[in-house]
Amino acid sequence: MIEVPVYNTDGKQVDTLQVEESLFGTEVNCDLVKQAVVTYHANTRQGSAKTKSRSEKAYSTKKMYRQKGTGNARRGSRRSPGLVGGGHTFAKQPRDFRKKLPQKMRQAAVRSAILAKLLGGDLLVLEGLACTEPKTKAMAGVLTNLGINRSCLLALAERDSNVYLSSRNLQDLTVRITEELNAYDVATRQKMIVTSDAMKQLCKQEA
Fold this sequence. Notes:
Blueprint: E1 2-8, E2 13-19, H1 30-43, H2 103-119, E3 123-127, H3 136-145, E4 152-156, H4 161-167, E5 173-177, H5 183-187, E6 191-195, H6 196-206
Parallel strand pairs: 1-3, 3-6, 4-5, 4-6
Antiparallel strand pairs: 1-2
Helix pairs in contact: 1-2, 3-4
């Protein structure tokens, strides 16, 4: 069993939650988490880089000047890669960098990433988070009370527009609902805050 501290919005620990680590896997699969992160990066690449090759340059193929007797270096076509305005030798072409990761592997990667946060003491449960109006100052105050001054992931049980609006101007805070959690977001944030309702959902889903 892993003991997870439960805090209120004032930064005071009010309880301790016992979490069965078998719900998130018996051990962290680092290789799988890395594969999921690499896949995420690859799928965000645009892949639209394009340069012209020799065949795509609109120049004559006529030899620029005779081979000998001019004192200059030998030159052939104006399209030569060695000349300004010539085509590239190995021209870049648009390509698709996307990688595929099966659903079960994606889900297992998320579980491993969450387990790593649990074992490392970087996950805490937050109780009583309620934004009645969108106020960045209020959300920043919660993070300050919790002593979080680095990148952080906030997991919610359901969409809350006030929480999203209160967090969007905080550069190091990312808000996700439990259904949207992915290994990249969990692994690349230093801390993870999970609301009490979201924690119940996560334990229920993994069970």
